[in-house]
Amino acid sequence: MQKTFYKKELLIKSPQKRKGTDNNKKDIEKIQSWLNLFAMQNPSSGTAASIDGDFGPATEKAVLNYQKFNALPQTGIVDQAVFALLSAPLKKAFEDAIAGNTLRELIVNTAKNHLKNHPFELVIKNQSNTGPWVRSYMDGNEGTDWFWCMGFVQAILDQAASIQGKNFKTLIPLTYSCDTVGTIGLQKKLLTRYQTARTNPSLIKPGDIFLLQKTPNDWVHTGIVTAIHGDIIETIEGNTNSDGSHNGNAVMNRIRNFKQSKIDFFSIEPLV
Fold first, then answer.
1. Of 54, 86, 118, at which residue does a domain stop?
2. For residues 70 and 90, what is the distance between their CA atoms, to the nearest angstrom?
3. Residue 92 covered by a domain
4. Any idea where the Peptidase C51 domain is (predicted)?
């Protein structure tokens, strides 16, 4: 795999605790981030607390609640073993075995595996588009200006292609820009414009990349096509929400009517 920053998100340098002599601000922020992500999936767990890099009484209580919720020894200390449990969804998303006989199947199943592990961004220091999932998709970058939908798409392509010993960068360069991929698609004649897709849906295939068009040379959002049914496509896309925003906060399975939207399609066929 080319995109391996996620591995850094699975580690802390030393055990972290209240008034610990080896406390590390970045590691504490990682712990606080995962406590909040856990609270999103388990609202009754009592693990949501500020993400400020300070292991104070609130963070200690959140850790104790996490340990109690998961039937762990209630120490209030987060060592690597506890942190591995906290960050397990990220490890599962990137390292679980993926089934599939073709690259297209591998891409769709990889995207589904990420989806079931609930990738979600956080707001840290008043900055959206932050947290361990965003950094993993964006190679360490995060913050309000770092829209991460293309980072997600390329992480999925990378992971799936690597299973077959292929390098996704033979198809498209490492980029976080929809415009870059759209422009390359035009240059390589791999981009099906929405007008053509509407009249010939057979050109759209699972595993292809959709690009939501603002103008003919400006694309604002992207995701993976997982299925085509009549006038609609099913997708898995990052940095979106239930309204289909290009700056949402989660990875979601969405349904889009491609005959009523300006959606272009980038074919992955050369990589297949």
1. 86
2. 18
3. no
4. 146-239
Is 93 part of a structural domain of the chain? no
Whether 242 and 135 map to the same domain: the answer is yes
**CB-based contact 241:249 (threshold 8 Å):** yes
AA letter at 193:
R
CATH value at residue 79: 1.10.101
- Whether residue 25 is found in the same domain as residue 144: no
Q: Which of 133, 155, 138 has its CA nearest to residue 223?
A: 155
Residue pair 12/147 in contact (Cβ under 8 Å)? The answer is no
Domain containing residue 175: 99-271
Distance CA 223, CA 207 (A): 10
With 0-12 / 13-18 / 19 or more C-beta atoms within 10 angstroms meaning exposed / middle / buried, residue 96 is middle
pLDDT in tens, 37-66: 999 999 999 999 999 999 999 999 999 999
Does residue 201 sit in helix, strand or coil?
Answer: helix
Please give the helix or strand (H or E) that residue 106 lies within, else none: helix 103-116
* pLDDT per position as a tens digit, 117-156: 999 999 999 999 999 999 999 999 999 999 999 999 999 9
Specify if 44 maps to a domain.
Answer: yes
Answer whether 238's CB lies under 8 Å from 153's CB.
yes
What's the pTM? 0.97
